[in-house]
Amino acid sequence: MADFVGAVDQGTTSTRFMIFDHSGNEVAKHQLEHAQILPRSGWVEHDPVEIWERTNSVMQNALRHGNLAPEDLAAIGITNQRETTVVWDPRNGRPYYNAIVWQDTRTDSIAAALERSGKGDVIRRKAGLPPATYFSGGKIQWILENVDGVREAAEQGHALFGNTDAWVLWNLTGGPDGGVHATDVTNASRTMLMDLETLDWDDELLGFFGIPRQMLPTISPSSHREAYGVTRTSRPLRAAIPITGVLGDQQAATVGQVCYAPGEAKNTYGTGNFLVLNTGTELVRSQHGLLTTVAYQFGDSPVVYALEGSIAVTGSAVQWLRDQMKIINHAAESETLARTVEDNGGMYFVPAFSGLFAPYWRSDARGAIVGLARYNDNGHLARATLESICYQSRDVVEAMEQDSGVHLDVLKVDGGVTANDLCMQIQADVLGVPVSRPVVAETTALGAAYAAGLATGFWRDTDELRTHWQESKRWEPQWSDDQRAEGYAGWKKAVERTLDWAEVE
């Protein structure tokens, strides 16, 4: 029996391939960034061909670094940046347009029109989502309406849609030569097109966006014994390895953090932040600005639902300090710079670059730095940036407690920003609960590997997976209740200053 499971982690800024052993330990990985294409304000795109080429490279290099052969892999899982929309020609594999990224706001007029017409309430009821620029449906509509020839191609069956999981899967399984066009329930639940109860594409929702049904991939469980397909014996692996797990990145992190029981939650700190609370087989409809979504579905077992708080800009705010403001050279320097001051000096930074996501859902918001005095310096800006990550997470935690009645006793965290000790300490201070980071912080790839391995019997069940989880570090709250209340009140005032800035048609 093969001794390892691999996972493609196709993220917003990079693609990596990670290989895990039976204990869930990382054996090898390789990672490559791809270009962030910003054609105009509010537009964010990726080149799908570049993403596929990066996927090829990282798979080959990870195996080489681990001194492994493709046949050493029992299965492969895929996890991906959700909502990022690719439309391509199945006859030749060429994208009709760049991938429109989840952060992109060009579809704000589409979302606003749905809300005005009353269709937004139908989307909330069926899909569990508000009409927003975040999700795939409006992006597909924009491509159909704005890229010459795509609507005609779609109606003739010559245009396929997928989030990046479906794009990578189709290419891995043969592309134009018999590639499998499929996705899983978690990715499908991020489109505004799937009914959460039937777990199928909904004709009424498709009609709202004018999307031909034949564009859409087949919806399958996240962990699939029959396999999504096998890698073709051409590149990148030159071997037929079953692909048996697919999960959107935040659901994959939920699986990797072993949040398998109702009431268990995790918060992933990446480009954005995503807090996911397992609600079990109960479909809990949010009344406080959260998303009702699918957490995962393993084989023939009932689907497990979740509440999610999605925050657009957290880790990417640190990238903004590095790339646009140029006050740091590396992301890790944000901690060093922030430690030069004792507090934020009265400064708050609300990074509403793409509007505000949960729990506000305000596409008219734009970023703001408020409370400035001449006293403030780069250290205060770095500190305010880290605090913005933590305050946005508190906004979501408050909404989640109101919706679910569940009070967090501890917050499980993962993702790149968790390497920033100061940020995690601030998070514990802002929330007033301990923050816990696992030994394997990159739980997104691990969750995809778990889903793939469960399908093949590489791992027996979720109880076995629980035994692999180990805490690496814990941060205890240090602020007083008065400090916590005062800081959060200032944050709420700062958020108010960002609203009603951009004109939405």
From TrEMBL:
Return the EC number: 2.7.1.30
Gene Ontology biological process terms from the UniProt entry: glycerol catabolic process; glycerol-3-phosphate metabolic process
Q: Which one of the record's GO molecular function terms can you name?
A: ATP binding
Q: Which reaction does it catalyse?
A: glycerol + ATP = sn-glycerol 3-phosphate + ADP + H(+)
Q: How is its activity regulated?
A: Inhibited by fructose 1,6-bisphosphate (FBP).
Q: Which GO terms describe its cellular component?
A: cytosol
What are the coiled-coil residue ranges?
Answer: none
Give the main EC class.
transferase
Identify the residues that bind ATP.
T12, T13, S14, T271, G315, Q319, G416
Q: Which InterPro entries match?
A: ATPase_NBD, Carb_kinase_FGGY, Carb_kinase_FGGY_CS, FGGY_C, FGGY_N, Glycerol_kin
Pfam families named among the record's database cross-references = FGGY_C (PF02782), FGGY_N (PF00370)
The metabolic or biological pathway listed in the UniProt record of this protein is: Polyol metabolism; glycerol degradation via glycerol kinase pathway; sn-glycerol 3-phosphate from glycerol: step 1/1
Q: Give residues annotated as binding sn-glycerol 3-phosphate.
A: T12, R82, E83, Y134, D249
Alphabetically sorted, this entry's keywords are: ATP-binding, Glycerol metabolism, Kinase, Nucleotide-binding, Transferase
- What sequence ranges are listed for the domain Carbohydrate kinase FGGY N-terminal? 6-256
> What CDD domains does the entry give?
ASKHA_NBD_FGGY_GK
Q: Which Gene3D superfamilies match?
A: 3.30.420.40
Q: Which family does it belong to?
A: Belongs to the FGGY kinase family.
* Role: Key enzyme in the regulation of glycerol uptake and metabolism. Catalyzes the phosphorylation of glycerol to yield sn-glycerol 3-phosphate.
List the NCBIfam families hit by this protein, alphabetically. Answer: glycerol_kin (TIGR01311), PRK00047.1 (NF000756)
Instruction: Name it.
Output: Glycerol kinase
Species of origin: Streptomyces humidus
